[in-house]
Write a structure and sequence with these properties.
Blueprint (H helix, E strand, L loop, with lengths): L1 H27 L2 E8 L4 E8 L3 E6 L16 E2 L3 E6 L3 E10 L5 E8 L7 H7 L7 E3 L10 E7 L6 E7 L3 E6 L6 E4 L3 E5 L5 E10 L5 E9 L5 H14 L8 H8 L1
């Protein structure tokens, strides 16, 4: 009897130790940021936590009389995120929740960092955990270029100038314009197309505000001509990454379309 009690005690102690170690490891993997939370009518400040489960926010503003606004009981799991936009100093989470008072628009949470701080560590953490729902509004300097071209991105009112960098598994648009840079993994891209040697369009899974729920297109004017072989190789890699059966050449694609 005594041996049985000792055995049970040992097992219970081991469970507690394992749970404590797991919790400690979990806490070490969490990223914490002191942020401003943009509300519809007012702003707040608090702590944003990004970990293996998802994103959580705890408001700490002492001036607020109302209870702190929380994300899904302090935790918004990754499967509850419709899109996560991240730039060097801003992070926006789009949920699946409808806002009746805003005609059913999906509820968003926007967080900004103080000047001088960045979400670089958060991007490195999230790009390994989120699929095409991650929108990287920044240029990933770790992408090794196969080739690049100087370009202008066309905009509705104002464009931006920079460089289009093509890597083995990424396309990067690098520009000095704030929040205009992008890093796309091939899985983030639905299609690429070209109307000529000085034109390239990248269709992505990023939400387009002008067309609710649709994909977003990025139109580029190329300052140098795009070699047809480069475009064909890029088109092949993109489609091969999707596991699609592709034709052997652009000429064959054109023949099928006739």
């Amino acid at each position: 009897m005594e041996m049985a009690l000792r055995s049970q005690t040992t097992v219970a102690t081991a469970v507690v130790i394992v749970a404590a170690l797991a919790q400690a490891g979990f806490a070490q993997n969490a990223l914490r940021y002191e942020v401003r939370h943009e509300h519809w009518l007012r702003d707040g400040s608090g702590t944003l936590v990004i970990d293996q489960r998802g994103v959580s926010y705890q408001e700490t503003s002492k001036s607020k009389r109302k209870k702190p606004e929380r994300l899904h009981h302090d935790q918004l799991n990754y499967e509850d995120i419709q899109q996560l936009y991240i730039s060097p100093q801003k992070l926006t989470v789009v949920t699946y929740r409808d806002q009746v008072w805003r005609l059913g628009m999906d509820k968003e949470y926007e967080f900004t960092l103080p000047t001088g701080e960045t979400f670089a560590a958060a991007y490195a953490f999230l790009k390994k955990r989120l699929d095409e729902r991650l929108v990287a509004a920044l240029a990933d300097d770790e992408v090794q270029p196969l080739w690049e071209l100087p370009v202008k991105r066309l905009g509705a009112l104002r464009g931006s100038e920079g460089a289009l960098v093509v890597g083995a598994e990424h396309i990067v648009y690098r520009t000095e314009r704030r929040e205009q840079s992008r890093t796309w993994r091939f899985q983030d891209i639905e299609n690429i197309s070209s109307a000529g040697r000085f034109d390239l369009t990248i269709t992505t899974y990023e939400r387009a505000k002008a067309h609710y729920g649709s994909m977003k297109e990025f139109h580029f004017q190329l300052k140098q001509p795009l070699d047809e072989r480069r475009f064909e190789a890029l088109w092949r890699r993109l489609n091969r990454s999707k596991g699609l059966s592709i034709l052997t050449s652009l000429e064959e694609r054109n023949q099928v379309g006739k």
